[in-house]
Amino acid sequence: MNTPAHSGRVAVIVVGMLGLFAGLGARLALLHLGPNDDLQARVLRLHHIERVVLAERGRILDRRGQVLAMDLPVRDVWIDPKAIAEAGHGTFVAAHLSRILEVDEEMVLARMERTHRLHEPIRKRVHNDLAEQVARLKFRGVHFDDTMTRHYVQSGLMCHVLGFVNHEGYGSAGVEQRYHRMLRGIDGLRVSERDGRSHEVYNRRHLDIPPRRGHEVRLTLDQELQYILESELDKGLEEYGGQAAWAIMMRVQTGEILAMASRPAFDLNEFPTSSPEQRRNRAVGYNFEPGSTFKVAVLAAAFNEGMITPDEWIDCERGRWYYRGRPLRDYSPHGVLTVADVLQKSSNIGSAKIALKLPESTLEAYLRDFGFGRVSGIDLPGEETGILNPRSRWSAISVTRIAMGHEVAVTALQLLNAVNAVANQGRLMQPYVVQEVINRHGYAVHRGEPTVVGRPIRPETARLMAGLMVRTTEDGGTGRRARLDGYRVAGKTGTAQKPVPGGYSDRLNIASFVGFLPADNPEISMVVVFDEPLPERTGGAVAAPVFRRIAEQAVRYLGIPRYDEPEATMWARSQP
Amino acid sequence: MKRRRKRNKKKQAQGFVFPVPLALLLVLITVTSMSYLWMHGRCEAAGVRIQRLERHQLQARQQLLDEQAKWNQLRTLNQVRAAVARHRLDMELAPTHRVIRLARPPRLDEPISLGEWARLADTP
């Protein structure tokens, strides 16, 4: 029954409801139509997501396509101490985490006690298999962040050539550094919004640029030859002692580096624990006085100028000779030798007299043409220039000292490259370690090509020098321990006293052997260097046998035929 | 004069009659709104599905990289040599007295006979 009182109550309720909705409507209108820039900005900030999607770094392969370096998905494991404290299972979680992740349990417990913090790292870059074991336990307060790490499949093999990537993702040595821009790829970007539960709302994704994987780098090095080189250097250090050893193997006609090793070495996957000495690539980054191996360049210069002939006689003064009042000695005294024998027996006096036949300017020019005193330009960082002083800084006796490989400093690569020019008919090649760089579509964006960078000597001179260098590995030569059955090896030993304050050491040497084979049709050239071997100290006693052991395996691996094989069997070598 | 048809007053509408065009308009708006909501829901569901597939793709990629790493690890020289030693194969590069050089490729089913077109590598 509609009484006035009833109608009044209804009217009050209706007016109240209308007022409420009017007020809400007014507030809504004010929020949307009034000044709301601050509010909009705040909402956008809360919802906005901008995430960089990391690109996968390109792989590094050896010349046969074996993977040497690749990106590996890993996880960073972290805890929320507050959540763990609330769950009340800290000790239990700590025990399992320390067991599975192999971390100190005390460390984990200490981090769990920081309950004012929401994020405490436990272990970074955990392999997915290990992280899965933790994830399966479904501990509250234990979280994972997906990330990538650089993984070196063979650990320490080729460590100085490959280099490594630091934790910021930058190549910090070797090929990783030199080819960083090609390897790193291009990161992607995703701009989107999230809802109230921090989940991305797909429909609000404004921008989605996918990451582009880095290029793949294929090296000229062969991992099998590298393994041979490294194993023999390790065995040599064990047998002959020494602070360090290094070696390089090169393909004569192209300048491709087939193997490059330096000892001491380090595990690329544990690079933070390595020392600068271990990380140093002595093959390109260490200057040393080469000693008698340098005579190859000096004699080649004299032959090329027509200053000497192989059967010309040189008086070696029975091992002691004074020039400009300063003594010069031979390791073994000799009387009169032919030029050929000066090289075979490595007479310092003979080499000095030969060098003095050349004008100083001519000698300097030849040495620079052979690549000494400047970088070779190999595609690796940290290459040293060596030391070859300009003629203006030579003393009266410098020529005699340079002739025996002192008063000059070289890198092993420079020495090998110069001898390689002798093997390669006088052509000095550009050494390189990267065969090609391939983009993600399979196209080569960069190719290493054989490049002739100079011609210090004529082909006839090179052939003559090769023939003389073969005598070094025959009976009566200083490098007879480098001789290889079935192959003619051309080479030169070097035994250089190390400089110490006040002069040269009587005990400490750099022992080296540099050579190529087969001498008639050279395929590979190699240099082996030992630093401070003891008690055996000479290139002939230490470096030459290591050279032979490496060469013995290399010729079989590469299928290089012996000198007595007929041409008809060559086809077998060409089969894949 | 025609007789007027008697109308049944009970059947005539009493009070306010909702206009048909307005009703049709409201129905149209309702249907459109419902369609919009339905499509929005579908888009949202598609978005969720896309995100799930993206996560799946990422996991698959990570799994692939994992397996590639494991495979490459198995093929390292140390692993191969260890496996060879484990099976006591004692393999090494053959010395020359164990190598037979062939002057030509053998025909099918042809036995290799030394002296004719095959010889030991270290014989002249």
Short characterization:
The complex is a heterodimer of chains A (576) and B (124). Chain A is of the alpha+beta class and 576 residues long.
Report the sheet with the most strands of chain A, covering strand number, pairing sense and barrel closure: 7 strands, mixed
Oligomer: heterodimer
Percentage of residues in helical conformation of chain A: 25-40%
Mean pLDDT of chain B: 82
Structural class of chain B: mainly alpha
CATH superfamily of the largest domain in chain A: DD-peptidase/beta-lactamase superfamily
Assess the beta-strand content of chain A as a share of residues. 15-25%
Number of strands of chain A: 22
**Order of strands across the biggest sheet of chain B?**
1-2
Q: Over the alpha carbons, how many angstroms does the gyration radius of chain B reach? A: 45 Å
Helix count of chain A, per DSSP?
A: 21
Q: What would your notes on this structure say?
A:
The complex is a heterodimer of chains A (576) and B (124). Chain A has 3 domains: 47-62 and 158-216, Penicillin-binding protein 2a (Domain 2) (Alpha-Beta Complex), CATH 3.90.1310; 73-106 and 115-153, Alpha-Beta Complex (Penicillin-binding protein 2a (Domain 2)), CATH 3.90.1310.10; 223-574, Beta-lactamase (3-Layer(aba) Sandwich), CATH 3.40.710.10. Chain A is built from 21 helices and 22 strands. In chain A, strands 2, 3, 4, 5, 9, 17 and 18 form a 7-stranded mixed beta sheet that branches. A 5-stranded antiparallel beta sheet of chain A has the order 11-10-22-21-20, with helices on both faces. In chain A, strands 1, 6, 7 and 8 form a 4-stranded antiparallel beta sheet that branches. Chain B has 124 residues and is mainly alpha-helical. Chain B folds into 2 domains: 20-92; 93-124, no CATH class. Chain B is built from 2 helices and 2 strands. A two-stranded antiparallel sheet of chain B has the order 1-2. The chains are: A alpha+beta (576), B mainly alpha (124). Chains A and B meet through strand 3, strand 7, helix 10 and helix 20 of A and helix 1 of B.
